[in-house]
Design a protein that fits this description.
Blueprint: E1 2-8, H1 14-32, E2 41-48, E3 59-65, E4 74-80, H2 83-119, E5 120-121, H3 124-128, E6 135-136
Parallel strand pairs: 1-2
Antiparallel strand pairs: 2-3, 3-4, 5-6
Helix pairs in contact: 1-2
Length: about 140
């Protein structure tokens, strides 16, 4: 995956870039790396939501992953009191949503395999004959 980081309201430091790579990119690649292409962009926006407040939940981390051939993308937003807490919160939510995506994909494959097995049934005679004779199961 290609990591694209955007900083809004402050300047991006190399320390923050390394933190985003370690906390967001590496766990996501570990969980979904085999299922996604290498040139897929992972957009991360780090922002300070206000200019004049100095306390409270003013740091935001947004992560957006557009998955090809899927109608819904993975989007995570987290507000926190400091940037590291916002990144950690986004990481936890992203891992949960990535796990849901992976489970849905596996369930869809198993549903298709069950339906295929129901529709194309192999008779006992065909099994003894070496698998040359198939019949379609009638409903």
């Amino acid at each position: 995956m290609m990591l694209r980081i955007k900083a809004t309201g402050f300047s991006l430091t190399p320390l923050l870039e390394d933190l985003v790579k370690d906390k967001i990119l590496l766990p996501l690649e570990k969980r979904l790396g085999k299922n996604l292409p290498d040139d897929l962009p992972l957009d991360v926006e780090l922002a300070k939501t206000t200019k004049h407040h100095e306390e409270g939940k003013i740091w935001k981390c947004e992560v957006n992953l557009n998955i090809p051939r899927e109608k819904n993308n993975i989007f995570v937003e987290c507000l926190a009191e400091n940037m590291e807490a916002a990144i950690n919160g986004a990481k936890d939510e992203l891992e949960r949503k990535a796990g849901e995506y992976k489970d849905k994909k596996a369930a869809k494959f198993l549903r298709f395999a069950r339906r295929l097995k129901e529709n194309f049934h192999v008779t006992r005679l065909a099994k003894r004959a070496g698998g040359f004779f198939y019949r379609e199961k009638r409903k």
